[in-house]
Task: structure prediction
Amino acid sequence: MKITNTCLSLLFAVTILAGHGTASAQGNLFEGVELTITPVAGNVYMVQRPGGGGNIGVQVGPDGVLLVDSLFDPFTERLLNSVKQVSDEQVRFLINTHIHVDHVGGNANLAERGVVIFSQENTRLRFLDERSRIPRNGGTFGPPHPEAGRPLITFKDEMSFHLNGEDIQVFHVPPAHTDGDAFIYFPESDVLHLGDVYRTTSYPIIDVYNGGTLKGTIEALNMAIDIAGPDTRVIPGHGLEIVGRAEVIEFRDMILDIQGKVLSMIREGKKLEEVMAAQPTAEYDADWTDDPGWGPEDFVPIVYSQLGGSGRLADR
Ligand SMILES: [Zn+2]
Result:
């Protein structure tokens, strides 16, 4: 399908109704949930679910469709129906930004349809683990990722896709959300997908169980700020808004401020409980606690331990 500019504007926030497929046990949780596809800029769209979790980048054009992330397993048909609203071309490639199931859960379904999957090599290694791990509630275990969903092609530092008139750049960033995080930059469309290193809903989730670090989070955000220009549109891993460079700077600066406060308390010899009681995130809590599973009680202990603080609650 040839996409015109008029057509693009008419397609704003096309709503896709849920499919009628048989729902698995996991699928019941997602039954009736609708996905939307929204133009971002140029050839790039974003597919998202209510609440804005696991936002998918979609680049379209005559060479075929490239996806960034695959959402949960039960969403694959709805995801492909969303893509069909803006392109009749085949989905050919999928890049995973990192290992979490809300970003790779649809991999096996897409592989079955002939989509070739790429990731940073550390992310592929996580697919081989006997159990998957998520950072919430102190590192919860989940079932293993299916073998059929493993990326077929990996990169170490960076790779490029030459597709639909763009030289798409894929970078490995310092260990931030996980140790296999990738950023994807579409230079002609001027769109940057940051995976879960950047989110608009909460404090950064630093998944130490999958190799994430505070230092790497700041370094990776600095990379994003360097890459982004004044008009760059940024797709967050979670959140309903498409943002720009200024919002990424604001997020980075918030983390730096909280880091500075926690570090000075560590230098004063404060225990974690004392740091928590001092509420180093207080001025940000109103804006950055939209994710009920990741508040200051989750974020501050990680900042504390990442900065070398010692003395757990139980040590007192
Ligand atoms: Zn994640």
Observations:
- Residues 98, 100, 103, 177, 196 surround zinc ion (CB under 6 Å).
- Residues 1-27 have pLDDT under 50 and may be disordered.
- Residues 34 and 112 are 23 Å apart (CA to CA).
- The chain is about 30% helix and 20% strand.
